[in-house]
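I had to read the description of the data format several times before I understood it. For illustration, here is how one protein appears when written out as sequence plus structure tokens:
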Amino acid sequence: MAEIESFTLDHTAVKAPYVRLIAVERGPKGDAISNFDVRFVQPNEGEIPTAGLHTIEHVLAGLLRDHVDGVIDISPFGCRTGFHLIVWGEPLVADIVSGIAQSLHAIAETVTWEQVPGVSAVECGNYRDHSLHSAREWSRLILERGISSDAFERVDVVH
């Protein structure tokens, strides 16, 4: 079985919230795809409830593309402590932190239920499991702690 970087990370040594570049992969024509660990909650100390995480996922899918070029996908971790962010190219961690923070501010302050994409049975595989209230509360909590540009030290924290 292949070794998975995320499973070799010492989850007891990181200090969430943070953004961490996991790896840059190159395709056969040299195109770069970057994989980021966007960690919102300290591993093994808490988790975002599924309804709130699900709503954050749906809103980030749209908002983040307004702030970060080349977003391919943002998908939640099964442990519910954050997301994998996959993007074309090699953006700076600081630019990802900024885009995430701007998106969380919108979720916390301005996004209305009508603006949450993909919340019907036609558009979502579990449309009943959403909570904008939870998404707002968690976005506020994450922003209050600040998002670090380093997984192991609280540096360049963006609120």
Remarks:
- The CA atoms of residues 104 and 139 lie 5 Å apart.
- Residues 12-145 form a domain with the Gyrase A; domain 2 fold (CATH 3.30.1360.80).
- The mean pLDDT is 96.
- The longest helix spans residues 50-67.
